Amino acid sequence: MNISAGRMSFRDKGVRKACWDSRDRYWACLDLPGIQRDHCLELRRLYELACPGHWVKHFDRKRQYMEFQERIHSVGLREPATLSSCPALDTPLTRRHRVYSEVVFT
Asked: Is the pLDDT assigned to residue 63 strictly greater than 90?
């Protein structure tokens, strides 16, 4: 049994590179200022053809997380106004998040 069978692996380096290149072209399109996501649909289609589905899912999640991190660094983590006005939501977890946001972002 191949140990790397469960990992995200491809047959050869060239195929992996083609996948990463198509992902990078698609992401570059999404990063263009003022561009609508609809303009990148062809690049998205090529990205999905070049990469296995589980890679696409992984890369999409990675991009969403990177965008989330960027928003936190540029805007900061803001607590929704409704959270503090609802006693039922005042759980230890939300209190911890509130303290964390005050320590890190104030």
From this structure: yes
Q: What is the pTM of this model?
A: 0.60
Angle, alpha carbons 66-74-32 (nearest 5°): 60
Q: What distance in Å separates the CA atoms of residue 68 and residue 89, rounded to the nearest whole number? A: 23
* 4-45 per-position pLDDT tens digit: 444 555 668 999 999 999 999 999 999 999 888 889 999 999
In terms of phi and psi (left: phi > 0; alpha: psi -120 to 50; beta: otherwise), the region of 33 is beta
CA distances from 23 to 15, 32, 47, 93 (A): 12, 15, 5, 36
Q: Which two tokens stand for residue 1?
A: 């049994």
